Amino acid sequence: MNIEWIAAHSPQAKGRIERAFQTAQDRLVKGLRQVGANDLDTGNTFIAGHNPLDYLKALSKYMVHCHIKDVSPALAAAARGEETGIGSSEVYVGGGVNNENIRKCMEYFHQTDWAGVVSLECSGTGENTRKSVEWMRGVVKGLKKGGSALEL
After folding, report:
1. Domains plus CATH for the chain?
2. Rounded distance between C-alpha atoms, residue 46 and residue 84, angstroms
3. pLDDT tier for residue 13 given thresholds of 50, 70 and 90
4. 124 alpha carbon, distance to own chain's centre
5. What pLDDT band is residue 151 in, cutting at 50, 70 and 90?
6. pTM of the model
7. How would you class 103 by CB atoms within 10 Å of its CB: exposed for 0-12, middle for 13-18, buried for 19 or more?
8. Which CB contacts under 8 angstroms, 24+ apart, belong to 87-92?
9. 152 vs 54, more confident
């Protein structure tokens, strides 16, 4: 897995990126619907009161994309089982209460040779992005060594 951080450092660049991604996302979603493919959001599944790994095991053969999102302890305490999703998380991926579920999902992807796309979602601060990428690199490194991501 090649994990790379690409940041937009100005409002103008961010706008261009968002416009381009909106176009690409629109085509991607329509294409996925045509072939009956799905995606999974680990944060939304968790905040809805479910175990992301259980959903992953049931849906992985239909999935082409997985949003990896963690959940802050405060948000989990206030909304878990009450809401069906959150737009973005204030904590970096790996820094919340959903991190063990995320590790287990990544391990399952590795064990099953899943060939889909994974994206990391968090509040867009440079620090959150950096920590998310670092955390995920550690998880992936553990998988590449043939060990369990849970051993990290």
Report:
1. 36-151 (3.20.20.150)
2. 9
3. very low
4. 14
5. very low
6. 0.73
7. buried
8. 88/121, 88/122, 88/123, 88/124, 89/43, 89/121, 89/122, 89/123, 90/122, 90/123, 90/128, 91/122, 91/123, 91/128, 92/122, 92/127, 92/128, 92/129, 92/131, 92/132, 92/135
9. 54
